[in-house]
Degradation activator (Robinsoniella peoriensis), 362 residues
Amino acid sequence: MKKNKVTSSDVAKASGVSQATVSMILNKKYNVSFSKETVEKVENTARELGYDIPKRRVRKDNKARKLITVFCPTLTNPYYVMLLQGIEGVAKEEGYAVFVCNTQRDLKMEEYYLKMMDSVQPLGIIYTSNPSTCFMEQVKELAEHIPFVVINNREDIMEVDAVELNNSKPGRLMAKHLLELGHQRAAFVSPPLTDRQRQRFKRVEGFVKEFRAAGFGDTVYVKSADEDMDTVMPSIDSEYKMGYDLTKELLKEHDDLTAIAGLNDMIAFGIMDALYEAKLKVPGDVSVIGCDNILFSKMKRMSLTTIEHFVPLKGRDACDIIIRKIHSKNSLDALELQPTSIYHVEYEPRLIVRGTTSYARN
């Protein structure tokens, strides 16, 4: 009877470690580090089981190793493009290449790219939004051996470097600005509010809390897209269209609104077009405010009141942290890596008042 071939899963089970750990050790990945005991245990187990240890491919060009992977949920929103510009700017200055994984907010795509990391062998990984909860264990394991930075609200269960924005602050700033202008009947338009997108919820929550604190909790509304909208393949105008469609529905439900906030600038542009189509003046009849301060919001015809939170600088900081960690890691013995500091950079948002907000109509 033919004996079954020993697999890396067999080695992992016998060693008491994960399959990913076995793969990285036996393939002698140059960019990951394990304790000497773990390496010896895996190698000895592999030999005892008769596992065919792959021969390491020799890289002729050392520069090929200087690669940073960036996970993006979408590239249709200029916010993520601005983040990438910041990341790539620092990477280029330091001689690193950037490999972008556009997951399109698709769990299967995110899983595909995570599995690819074993062959891509990046020196560092940047997530431009929180990793999906279902892949948190895989991400945590990667973060134990490769420099890893998350941009956005860092999950408390992950001890990784983070460049953050407290997302309740932009929501509160938006609300305070509208309340100061006398708005009492307002709405917040958002993409799906799901567990996977906690940063969205925090922004909405901050907005609603300010209105409730001012005594207008009964006249502030939240209009969000259906959850399945996050699973639809995004197009270049998907968030704009979301803002447009949700606002049309909102106007049918509440015809007395004096202000509408969009989760981001692209949604705010959709809000504005829906209002124009309904023959409502911005800001004369309804004030509109967005968030991100993307390029289009500065154009005179748009002149969108928005929240600045220094997106390109966040990208630069994330890449700077990664490269510092790579240099620090390379200076230590490959098999005796010591714990290093957790970097935590938080940006303070700022209100940018332009032409789409004004005093509430009587």
Remarks:
- The domain at 67-165+311-349 is CATH 3.40.50.2300 (Rossmann fold).
- The chain has three domains: 8-49, 67-165+311-349, 167-308.
- The first strand starts at residue 67 and ends at 72.
- The CA atoms of residues 287 and 357 lie 4 Å apart.
